[in-house]
Amino acid sequence: MTSLAVAPSEAEQSAAPRPGHLSLGKAFALVATHAVLVVGAVVMLLPFVWMFATAVRPPSEILAHPLDPFPRAFHGVENFTQALKTAPLLKFMANGVIVCAGILIVQLLVAIPAAYALAKLSFPGRSLLFGLVIAGLCIPIQVPALPLYIALANLGLLDTYFAMMVPFFISVFAIFLFRQTFKTFPDEIIQAARVDGVGEIEILWRIVVPSAWPAIAAFSVFSVVAHWNDLYWPMIVIQRLEYAPPPLGMLFFTGTESGANYGSLMAGATIITLPLVVLFLIARRRFVQGITMTGIK
Amino acid sequence: MTSALNIQPAAAARRRRIAALGALFAAPAAVLIVAILVVPVCMLLALSFTDYEIGAIAIRWVGTANFERAITDPVFRRAIANTLLYVAIVLPGGVALGLLFALLIHARTRTRGFYEVVYFLPVTTTLIAMAAVWQFLLHPRLGPVNAALKALGFSEQAFISDPKLLLPTLAAIGLWQVVGFNMVLFLAGLSAIPRDLYDAAAVDGAGGAVDRFLTVTWPMLAPTTLFVAVTTSITAFKVFDTVAALTQGKYGSEVLLYAIYLEGFQYFKMGYAAALTVVFLAFMLAFSLVQAFQLDRRVHYS
């Protein structure tokens, strides 16, 4: 309880730092705070550390030293080669890139004009469309999944990239988020551009969209993470391995490799996990922004 | 005089042009919303009253038979019970731990970035890949968790194949992934609290850290807390990936979405799966209603 309540007093200290005059109680609170945070951090990192350690150690070590986080011999080349031989991991990732890029491009091309129309243009059916957007916010993919599957099966479109992407071409969340952002754009600038004879399409893409860049970037990160990691829908429409995105491919990989060779399994998990971790470390601010913006929802 | 008369038709023409452009801009989105959301959801509702199966020749209207069957179906009942138990662990745990870590990290200056990265890392990772890692960590013979238990003198535990431990284990993995997400939301909420409120509280005699938390932080965070609680409930209610990766519904680990997946896409009992999906949708709408009330309240307060 003491450590939980440290936050405000700590904040005061950073406002007026007097490092020499740390009282005993405050020093204790500081130690307790870091103790809790470090224990939490160890739990958070444990799977990553073990994944990587197991991916670079020989199989004999896994049995002999299950508690040692540091590999004694380096067996990484063999494990990673084995992982890439067992399953087409790079193909899975290429599929993931194709699907995420396709989804994101169509999402932006559809949502940006619609959001602009909802924010700045009055047209018949505007409130109906906005009502549908709001209603759509509470419907996850699992709800329309059955009818969409039946339709795709009847059209002979199962096992295609199109089937994996099509339910996500519309993002009501993107429309909602962009509408909120565009609404704050000053009307006077749009009016002035219209008076100058600038076309509405040009106003949208050259003037309004650049000003909404943070929201668009945050949504893009959100979209890529969601669809790179999505398992449910690909599991339904994809049977053939050559179209599998990373999570579905990993599921297959776990099935073939279970128990036999944890070294190559962990090497495979490392390969699958790495792109998003690297993306996160590069674009940390955008990730956090993406989440706090979804918080507006 | 003449110019005023000329402006009005010109303004009307401009309005009409804007309306046409607006309709044009919104048209692709409107078409896709109808094709991907409205029509499928209506079809789903209709399907839930039929016995449709993929490959079957005839389709029959069966009224509420699918829903009656669901109520007595032991697998579905277990799926609901498991899902609710999972939510009952992940919801309070995810909110409390997210808040705890946010409070502790918020006051850090030099180490804040480091802790943020560490706690957020699980959010970004592919859960299927990390489920394989957790399976290894919890392995009865090879995993470090059981090795640590044995070193400390406890007996080893079959975290995944023991039905008593299975759901708490799945919930622990769910917590591991959701805490960082909640922490980021709480951190945003904490930075929005005006500093002078703490000064005012100090003047009013709320000097202790616990007092300050109870009089300022907790009430000011209320909208954030409710939002975090709703999103955590929805995320937890949709638990699927870890079940698909670790048990495939074995050892009595059925959850709602996995039951729907099996009935609809493995056994192709579309009518029955549609009825189960309607139940799932009802839960989603209930969560969203709570959220709508919260938004309402936030508007009144601010």
Please describe the topology of this protein.
The complex is a heterodimer of chains A (297) and B (302).
Chain A: H1 6-15, H2 24-55, H3 59-64, H4 76-86, H5 89-120, H6 126-137, H7 145-154, H8 161-165, H9 172-183, H10 187-195, H11 200-211, H12 213-229, H13 232-237, H14 246-257, H15 262-282, H16 284-294
Helix pairs in contact in A: 2-15, 4-15, 5-9, 5-12, 5-14, 6-9, 12-16, 14-15
Chain B: H1 2-47, H2 65-72, H3 74-106, H4 112-124, H5 127-137, H6 144-151, H7 163-191, H8 195-203, H9 209-237, H10 241-246, H11 256-266, H12 270-301
Labels describing this entry:
heterodimer; A: 297 residues; mainly alpha; MetI-like fold; 2 domains; B: 302 residues; 78% helix
> Could you state the order of secondary-structure elements of chain A as H and E?
HHHHHHHHHHHHHHHH
In one word, what is the shape of chain A?
Answer: globular
The quaternary organization reads as heterodimer
Query: What is the average per-residue confidence, as pLDDT of chain A, rounded to a whole number?
Result: 85
